[in-house]
From TrEMBL, chain A:
CDD domains in alphabetical order: HTH_XRE
Record-linked SMART domains: HTH_XRE
Organism: Marivivens niveibacter
GO molecular function annotations of the record: DNA binding
Descriptive protein name: Transcriptional regulator
A family per Pfam: ScfRs
HTH cro/C1-type domain: residues covered: 11-65
InterPro entries in the cross-refs: Cro/C1-type_HTH, Lambda_DNA-bd_dom_sf, ScfR_C
TrEMBL record, chain B:
The UniProt record lists the keyword Phosphoprotein: yes
Gene3D superfamilies: 3.40.50.2300
GO molecular function, one term: DNA binding
GO biological process: phosphorelay signal transduction system
Post-translational modification 4-aspartylphosphate, affected residues: 53
Occurrences of domain Response regulatory (ranges): 4-120
PANTHER family listed in its UniProt record: RESPONSE REGULATORY DOMAIN-CONTAINING PROTEIN, STRESS RESPONSE REGULATOR PROTEIN 1
Biological source species: Marivivens niveibacter
Official protein name in the record: Two-component system response regulator
Length: 428, 122
């Protein structure tokens, strides 16, 4: 279903902004008010001369009526529908729903995300209770101390003719075990003391780091100014803190190799081409791509998306931008250059890709897979891939088809499809 | 002659308490704390009963029990297994391996005494 269906909603919003009556607009473009009403409620598709006339009457560019930023919302709605196919959501009318009821759409997607987060939290807690070695060890220590105290105290209480040496010895044992019990209990309570913010607690360590970086726009001024290592954001988990520390170390190195002011100027001068920038600064292509993703929009740079993954295709870092977000809970579309780079190590890849969205969803991607860490003899290198993503406008030039994940991808005849789509039966 | 009990447990204060109550009840008590050498200790001086902890340094109580049951001389040696992990799967594992009795911590002294007496008489 084309994105253009939302055009009606935009026409209606613009008309209301201008405080124009429906009949006046209809008369201006030579149609009936009832027909305009159908258009505004996305029940009639329009294009060509009528759309041009409406844009002119509403004093806006044609693009303002036909292009929107609802791609992410539509993806989220489809994902929400995919979570419960039995609910019978009318997938063919997703865009109509988003256009007519943006508030309700936002509520649906937020609740779907909350359900996903809570399910993830339940899984984490279940895994923790069932398999966590630290929890098992803590409980073992507590029970061992309790056992020793109970058994020893029982002797002192029930044995009336115990000699003095044994009595003193058992008192000392009980005291020692009570100290162990106190320490073990404290450690156990500390371990089980979960944060009160359920939403944040449900995040994986990588998501927690990304949430922090997202809030900063992936630009960390305190590292740009010479690496103020004392600035330590508060993260909930040690794992997240460890991941962020590694990211900050890489970021600091990138700052040293590519100082902000000169890199910013060069990026503008070289059209944000990562290969040219890598050559200019004598750094790896991956480093140049990482650095581009940290450039602030306030300096006039476009917002770049960034994704990194390991050899298993697991996303290790991602900067999402409107329309670009690889799923973490479900398998991503393998057609993204990020993943194809893994099969061509050290080979830079540049591809224009197109999501199955009319009027948007086109990106230029730069990707490369490189060994991570130091080389060593007789050991296969650990590979990682990085991909820089920049939104581009459709120009009629060819673009590789990509999707987000199979369940919500409407493409037919895709050789990489893992499972049928919920969007239409043809997409197999 | 007093019957011999070998307590294989790594927590010294639990060893001391069990040793005390069994000694008072007329048993000769030997103790051992290392899982790795537990089977050798049993073979060197076979006891009438073994009290065996599950979580031991070097080798688990389950592995020790498996070795005992695989050895003809100790295949029928009474073993009272103690564990701080009371999960059903641990109990099932112990039973599959041929434990004589399975007891979860924290236990009462009376329960231990009663089990030891009944296992050796049986």
């Amino acid at each position: 279903m084309p994105q253009r269906q939302l055009t009606g909603s935009r026409i209606r919003e613009r008309r209301i902004d201008l405080e124009m009556r429906q009949t006046d607009l209809a008369q201006a473009v030579g149609i009936s008010a009832s027909y305009l009403n159908l258009i505004e409620h996305n029940r009639r598709r329009i294009g060509g001369k009528l759309l041009n006339d409406l844009a002119r009457a509403l004093q806006v560019d044609l693009a303002a009526l036909t292009e929107g930023a609802e791609v992410a919302l539509l993806d989220q709605l489809r994902s929400a529908a995919a979570q419960d196919r039995g609910a019978g959501a009318e997938l063919s009318r997703t865009e109509d729903f988003a256009g007519r009821f943006p508030g309700w759409s936002g509520l649906v997607t937020r609740q779907a995300k909350r359900i996903t987060d809570l399910e993830a939290r339940v899984k984490v807690l279940t895994d923790r209770l069932a398999h966590d070695p630290q929890l098992a060890t803590s409980l073992h220590e507590v029970i061992t101390a309790v056992t020793a105290i109970r058994s020893t105290a029982s002797i002192l209480v029930t044995d009336n003719d115990i000699d003095r040496d044994w009595e003193e010895r058992f008192h000392r044992n009980i005291y020692e075990d009570s100290l162990k019990l106190a320490e073990s209990s404290r450690a156990l309570v500390s371990y089980l003391d979960t944060p009160s913010d359920e939403g944040a607690a449900a995040l994986s360590p990588h998501e927690e780091v990304e949430a922090y970086l997202d809030a900063q726009g992936f630009h960390l001024p305190y590292l740009e100014e010479g690496g103020a290592a004392h600035h330590a954001p508060t993260l909930r988990s040690k794992a997240a803190a460890s991941i962020l520390a590694e990211y900050r170390a890489t970021y600091s190195q990138d700052v040293r190799d590519m100082p902000l002011v000169v890199f910013s100027q060069a990026a503008t001068e070289l059209g944000h081409d990562p290969a040219l920038l890598a050559a200019r600064f004598g750094v790896s292509l991956a480093a140049a791509m990482r650095r581009l993703a940290t450039l602030p929009e306030t300096l006039g740079h476009p917002a770049f998306g960034l994704a990194m993954c390991d050899a298993a295709g697991a996303i290790t870092l991602q900067r999402s931008i409107p329309g670009f977000s690889l799923p973490r809970s479900a398998a991503s579309c393998p057609l993204w250059p990020l993943f194809s780079a893994l099969s061509q190590p050290m080979q830079p890849i540049r591809r224009d890709v197109q999501l199955p969205i009319e009027g948007g969803g086109r990106f230029r991607c730069y990707a490369i897979a490189t060994p991570a860490g130091a080389f060593s003899f007789d050991t296969a290198p650990t590979m990682q891939a990085v991909m820089l993503v920049r939104p581009i406008t459709a120009s009629g030039s060819p673009a590789d088809p990509v999707g987000t994940s199979c369940r919500i991808c409407s493409r037919s005849g895709c050789r990489s499809r893992r499972e049928p789509s919920i969007l239409n039966d043809d997409a197999v | 002659m007093a019957k011999r009990v070998l307590v294989i447990e790594d927590e010294p204060n639990i060893i001391e308490a069990i040793s005390f109550i069994l000694s008072r009840d007329g048993w000769t008590v030997h103790t051992h704390s290392d899982g790795t050498t537990a089977n050798e200790k049993i073979k060197a001086t076979p006891p009438d009963l073994v009290i065996l902890d599950v979580m031991l340094p070097g080798k688990s109580g389950f592995d020790i029990l498996r070795d005992l049951r695989d050895t003809p001389e100790t295949a029928h040696l009474p073993v009272l297994m103690l564990t701080a992990r009371g999960q059903t799967r641990d109990r099932e594992m112990a039973e599959r391996l041929g434990v004589s009795q399975f007891m979860t911590k924290p236990f009462s002294n009376a329960e231990v005494l009663e089990s030891v007496r009944s296992l050796v008489q049986a």
